[in-house]
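Preliminary data (for renewal application), magnesium ion complex.
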Amino acid sequence: MHPLRNALQQALADQPELLKLAEDYERYYQLVHQATGIGVWDWRLDTGMILWDDPCWEMLGEAPSTQPLSYVDWQQRVHPEDLARVEPIVQQQLQSGQPFIIEFRFRHHQGHWLWVEGRGQVVEKSEDGSPLHMMGTHTNIHQRKQAELALVAQKEALAHSNQLLEEFAYAASHDLRQPLRMIHSYLQLLEKGLEGQLSDKNQQMLTFALSGADRLDSLINALLEYSRVGRKGPPNENYLLRESLEEALSFLAPDIERTQAQIDIVPGPWPHLNACRDEMTRLLMNLISNALKYTQPGQPPRVQIRLSTSEQDWVIEVCDQGIGIAEHNLDRVFRVFQRLHPASAYEGSGIGLAICRKIVERHGGKIQVSSEGENQGTCFKLTLPRHLDASRSG
Ligand code: ATP
Ligand code: MG
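Predicted structure:
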């Protein structure tokens, strides 16, 4: 019998109504315990005795006991790696009197380790303020913890395999360029050496081979650029994002002039960001250059650049009034080498938006596209988390 129950029975022996009330209360407490599986512990700091209720023992596959545990008994049941973490927290909370919540592993009777959430708080202090009595609970969190750990392991494995893939893409594109250049050079030499000697058909085949090699070179180059995003580039810096926009526009100045584009920048408070400046410039440049490119022939592009803010993000929109994108194609445009138009209509390698997405996601943001449909213009929306805001972090 639990010593507390024993003491209550003796104290209330001549007051049956109160004893009944105490028993009802105990039943209620047991029902709650059965339903939740939570165990309650009771630690007397003056005597060093720790009492566990039945669920505390049962959780560890042990027969319930009313025998108190010593502090050493408790230590021996806790996983050594966790003990080093748990003990200082408990000591600290004993001093401060604050409640604590800790996750740690207990040795199960069958030999394996069981994840438990321990909560506790000082419930009684001596006159000089030193803690006398602490109480708390044990909850079996093994399943949840296993799922959490599996998720962390999966995330790590995914990050590792992504890194390997990126390294592969980088190495492949880097190493493929050299032999390709050789093929290209020898084809050119062949063309020169055989000048005037080839039939029209053979000359045409050589021209096809040369332009194929050119195209392959630009694709490999695009892939190399894609895999370089975030790779040992310059570190993040604190700067005014508006400067990236100015830079992007100055790089695109010849195209803007040639197409007689009208660029409207809706005034707004541009943020100071902690970000990779080159990448941000490239991001805006890719979006604006698409807005200049994908218009009806002969129609001067009209581009609007807006900036707004929400509770959590900075939102930048680059919208055009160009050829638009059909709804069923919207989610294709961010994929590597996906183009909706043949190179004969609009030049490009289909990597620009994939690079944009990589840059935005690397900075913890999102990129979305919307269009009312063909010839209805297109709008790209970037959301960058406000925690990149350098002026906020000081
Ligand atoms: P590059 O790698 O030189 O940028 P690209 O422009 O073809 O080549 P992306 O920028 O990735 O490649 O764009 C992918 C495709 O999405 C484009 O080929 C085009 O079909 C479509 N697209 C992109 N931006 C727009 C836009 N503003 N309006 C209409 N279509 C667009
Ligand atoms: Mg592009």
